[in-house]
Amino acid sequence: MINSSKEFIETLKARCSIIKKIREFFDNSGYIEVETPLVVPFPSIDAFIDPVEVGNTGYLITSPEMEMKILMGKGVDKIYQITHAFRDGERGKWHSMEFTMLEWYRAGADYIDMMDETFRLISYVSTCTKKQVPPSFERIRIRDIFMNKAGWDPILKWDEERFFRDLVEKIEPSLEVAGGVFLYDFPVQTCPMARASNSHPHVLERFELYLRGIEIANGYTELIDPEIQNSQMVKENERRKKMGKKSYPVNNFFIEALKHGLPQCAGTALGIDRLIAYLLDKDGIRDVITFKEYNEMY
Amino acid sequence: MYDTSDIRKNLKIKIDGEPWIVVDFQFVKPGKGVAFTRTRLKNMITGLVIEKTFRSGEKLEEAELEEVSLQFLYKDDTYHFMNTQTYEQLEMTDAQVGEAKNFLLENMQVTALLFEGKPVSITLPTFVEIQVIEAEPGLKGDTATGGSKTVVLSTQAKVQVPLFIEKGEWIKIDTRTGEYVERVKK
Predict the structure, then answer these.
(1) Under an 8 A CB cutoff, do A165 and B53 touch?
(2) What is the pTM of this model?
(3) A95, A163, A165 ranked by CB distance to B29: nearest
(4) Could you tell me if A191 lies within 8 Å of chain B, comparing CB atoms?
């Protein structure tokens, strides 16, 4: 028997309870649980996220984002999904090519509402574990934490290489001692599907939640303008080509849905394996993934 | 050439002309951002440990290292060795031989690490037998009290030994710790 230790069984049970609790939270808040395809003809186009190809024309989803927003365009106002998502080449203590993701969207909400809801969700879910979640999570603007820990302002002067290097070398390690931290107001260059702030066009209405220095959730006010969204995707493809990576077809169903009209909404994606590792005090997602033996093979 | 995806524990890479070994590594990647591999590297010559972060896809030069068996021949200004496979003669400086010189005897077989064909470090056999050339007179019958004294070996190294060890005797040394193990009858 693989992994037949008592600890493994305990983790398996705790994982089950946590996922049930997540469903309970959304079911009680009036959300509909949905399913969208795992294999899609159009992957999300992101300079730094590589999809796994299936056959000649399909891709495994890197997130169910576009499909869930298409559903929002069809008139539902609160949806959530627990799904597996796949990202080629991602493997490590906190990464796996295949991982479990929670994603939810709410009409009429913005990223501030999403931060509130993400905190409420984690507090609620933690009650089925021994973990003491802090009574609130700190909120820090990207500009402020960069000025403080790295000595420069990435909103004022964008430098991609420097931004991500400082993020992983200076910012994230500084959050390891913190309980829970929302970093928010990201530079406009960091996400092609988030909406820029009306009052500060260099800033995205986007946040990342860090628990114990590990990125757990990413949320934003959704970009619903079809023209801007389309040009963002073309731009991401250009960036991919420049890096010698494959470019992908733009999802016309998604662009059409935006043209037809999407309610102003916000959404959040949360890494369930990472959340479980946090709640169970495990150092890495391998201890909470059910088949880590496979995970180690690619 | 290696790629960042080749990074594993014990991978040997060359940075600025020096060989480094990967002691630890971690894949780090912001969800929407560039992937990096954070590494902890040990310099194979100096032992210095540093942290270095590589951007995904960055090329890494391979450090060509080879382990060979050498025989120590003699010392003048430098240490002279012979590769027992190729009979090629190799030289090492005092600094490169380092602590090993305390227990290095002529004709001894040692393991050396060659970096680009040049020796950068040597490892002695775990146990070596060396003659004591200077010692205070032993105290008769005092074999059980556990006292110790300093003696000088034929290599000029000084070690702590039990009181009963006398000048001219041979002793066994553990080269990993530099400590006396036992008396050897020759």
Answers:
(1) yes
(2) 0.81
(3) A95
(4) yes
B62 to chain A, minimum CA–CA distance in Å?
A: 22
Separation CA B93–CA A61 (nearest Å)? 59
The pLDDT tens digits of the residues spanning A177-224 come to 888 999 999 999 999 999 999 999 999 999 999 999 999 999 999 999
B52 CB neighbours in chain A (<8 A) are: none
Q: In this predicted structure, what is the pLDDT of residue B138?
A: 65
| pLDDT digit string, tens, across residues A82-129 | 999 999 989 889 999 999 999 999 999 999 999 999 999 999 999 999
**Which candidate, A165, A26, A54, A48, places its Cα nearest to that of A95?**
A48
Separation between Cα atoms, residue A99 and residue A52, nearest integer Å: 13
> What band does A1 get if pLDDT is binned at 50, 70 and 90?
very low
3-class secondary structure for A167-181? HHHHHHHHCCCCCEE
Which of B3, B8, B29, B59 to mutate to probe the A interface, most A CBs <10 Å?
Answer: B29
Q: What's the first-to-final CA gap in chain B, in angstroms?
A: 52
Domains in chain B, CATH or no CATH each: 2-62 (2.30.30.30), 65-123 (2.40.50.140), 127-184 (2.40.50.140)
pLDDT at B121: 86
With contacts defined as CB-CB under 8 Å, which chain A residues touch B34? 48, 160-161, 164-165
Half-sphere exposure (Cβ direction) of B17: Cα atoms closer than 13 Å: 1
**How far are the Cα atoms of A34, A230, B60 from residue A251, in angstroms, in the given order?**
20, 9, 37
Q: Specify the DSSP class assigned to residue B122.
A: E
Phi, psi angle pair for B70, to nearest 5°:
-120, 155
Q: Look at domain A5-295 and name its CATH class.
A: alpha beta
Question: Does B27 contact A93 at a Cβ distance shorter than 8 Å?
Answer: yes
